[in-house]
Fold TROVE domain-containing protein.
Amino acid sequence: MAADPDRLRSAGMTWEALAGRLQGPMDARAWQSVIPSMGYMALLRNLRNFDESGVPDEVAGQIVAKLTDPGEVARSRQLPFRFYSAYRNAPSLRWGHALDGALTKATANLPSSGAARSSWSTPRRP
């Protein structure tokens, strides 16, 4: 069951549902079958699980491509601390460069301090 990503996707099987169905830690094969359908935040939060299960470098490269894609970073609307948190929690360094690049792209999406202040200011009472 875990080998066919298209079949899992068409069945609406998420990584959380697959993990529950397997009733134990997911191995590299299980992760490989759901990674193509995982969202940005799910990928970011599971880097350690990918490493611990032994996901191959080829698959890690696909994850890195998604994490560093400027459009994906912008659509993800992740705050910069999410990338730092992922960096601190991922045991291998194979994610470091990608997370640094994504963090840089995410900070570029933040409003300037002047814009942030003006959007949070409250009107004065007369």
User: Anything to note?
Assistant: The two ends are 67 Å apart (CA to CA). The chain has a mean pLDDT of 81. The chain has one domain: 5-108.
